[in-house]
Amino acid sequence: MGVLRLGVCISGVYAAFLLWAIAQERLSAPFPSASHHAHSSSSPKGDKFPSSLFLNYAQALASSLSAFIYLLFKAWRDGQLHRGIAEIVGLKQFFPIKKNSIGENRTKKENGHANGVIEGPGVVRTESKSKKGEKSTGMPWRKSLPVLLLQVSLFQTMASPIGFLALGHISYPTMVLGKSCKLIPVLLLNVFLYRRRFSPHKYVVVALVTVGISLFMLMAESKGKKKGGSDSAWGLCLLGINLFIDGLTNSTQDQIFSTYPSYTGQQMMFTMAFLTQLILLPALLLPLPAHPLVLLSHLPFPLSASSTLPTSHVSLAPPDFLTSISFLMSHPTALPPLLAYALLGGLGQLFIFETIQHFGSLTLVMVTVTRKLFTMLLSVVVFEHTLTKGQWLGVGVVFGGIGVEAGMKRREMLRRAKRDGK
């Protein structure tokens, strides 16, 4: 069942985000205006979608609706609709004291625990009286479920804009190379931040896949003869921050599932998408600076050196929400790719959170960073494209890493079957 589940998750991620990438590429292209009173500044080819924040909000909205529908369907199928919406979407787990206060005395009487109640693997809730007579769970507030989910939502919301900003100061091959190394910060932050332990072969697999993907991507760029341009120190710094935030996101998700094993991937997906909407909503409804980089010119050196615009007065633009709605009304052909972008992103997120819950963030990142490699290999078979020797070398290194992981998994399964047979 584990292999079948992993196969379904990988297929779902690949299929959903392959189509999602097509919709994203279409949204980045100009759309013709249907208005007879087009602005004089409009290009003959059309106008581009005015707000990336609106696109992120639309995808967050679709993700929360997808997770909500999935959770309701699963509860209906299992005959659990009587539990109520709050419990189905996981909101009741935000308040463990109220939820467990009745059952903990019964647990102590039945099991004879005088000082604590075991709540999950490695998590023990100790009971004590505070000065006001209230019970304490022994869980620091920083590790509570609402705080961890809010952290992940903030990380996820921040990562994309920083990545786009970094791309304005570094070359595309540098960005591709950085994203190819995403496994490393995920692994390191799991180890150093949350003290998670991995088998020795995991470090070998991460190294092989990272080297192989990096080699494959670099050879693809050199084959296409794309000039990278110069990379500024500020751009490299932003890329490092982007990778660090990605690592924080995935490692914190692992920590949530480890600390709260009854919390499901779809419940996390619903809550994170809902919190993301709350975070983005003020930015959509309030007027923002027309040129955000101008703000950097008002900061102390060296931050001011990152701004390519001269120091000037900060002018405010209309709210992104109004601008986007007006754009959709005057450019109706933008609506179908926007809906496809949001719905496919929501569908893909279902498979992503299922993968994180059951297989961990390292497996998920391995799936996402190898997606382009397998997509190009498919094009080699279907369209008879060719790969350079360097790309084939990268493919070999990646499959070497996957082979090590598969071999260790098989060995572990055989050892477990032998132990269970005894």
From TrEMBL:
<feature type="transmembrane region" description="Helical">
    <location>
        <begin position="145"/>
        <end position="170"/>
    </location>
</feature>
<dbReference type="InterPro" id="IPR037185">
    <property type="entry name" value="EmrE-like"/>
</dbReference>
<comment type="similarity">
    <text>Belongs to the nucleotide-sugar transporter family. SLC35B subfamily.</text>
</comment>
<dbReference type="GO" id="GO:0005460">
    <property type="term" value="F:UDP-glucose transmembrane transporter activity"/>
</dbReference>
<feature type="transmembrane region" description="Helical">
    <location>
        <begin position="389"/>
        <end position="408"/>
    </location>
</feature>
<keyword id="KW-0762">Sugar transport</keyword>
<keyword id="KW-0812">Transmembrane</keyword>
<keyword id="KW-0472">Membrane</keyword>
<feature type="transmembrane region" description="Helical">
    <location>
        <begin position="270"/>
        <end position="290"/>
    </location>
</feature>
<feature type="transmembrane region" description="Helical">
    <location>
        <begin position="176"/>
        <end position="194"/>
    </location>
</feature>
<dbReference type="Pfam" id="PF08449">
    <property type="entry name" value="UAA"/>
</dbReference>
<dbReference type="InterPro" id="IPR013657">
    <property type="entry name" value="SCL35B1-4/HUT1"/>
</dbReference>
<feature type="transmembrane region" description="Helical">
    <location>
        <begin position="334"/>
        <end position="352"/>
    </location>
</feature>
<dbReference type="GO" id="GO:0000139">
    <property type="term" value="C:Golgi membrane"/>
</dbReference>
<feature type="transmembrane region" description="Helical">
    <location>
        <begin position="203"/>
        <end position="220"/>
    </location>
</feature>
<keyword id="KW-1133">Transmembrane helix</keyword>
<dbReference type="GO" id="GO:0005459">
    <property type="term" value="F:UDP-galactose transmembrane transporter activity"/>
</dbReference>
<protein>
    <recommendedName>
        <fullName>UDP-galactose transporter homolog 1</fullName>
    </recommendedName>
</protein>
<dbReference type="GO" id="GO:0005789">
    <property type="term" value="C:endoplasmic reticulum membrane"/>
</dbReference>
<keyword id="KW-0813">Transport</keyword>
<feature type="transmembrane region" description="Helical">
    <location>
        <begin position="52"/>
        <end position="73"/>
    </location>
</feature>
<keyword id="KW-0256">Endoplasmic reticulum</keyword>
<feature type="transmembrane region" description="Helical">
    <location>
        <begin position="364"/>
        <end position="383"/>
    </location>
</feature>
<feature type="transmembrane region" description="Helical">
    <location>
        <begin position="232"/>
        <end position="249"/>
    </location>
</feature>
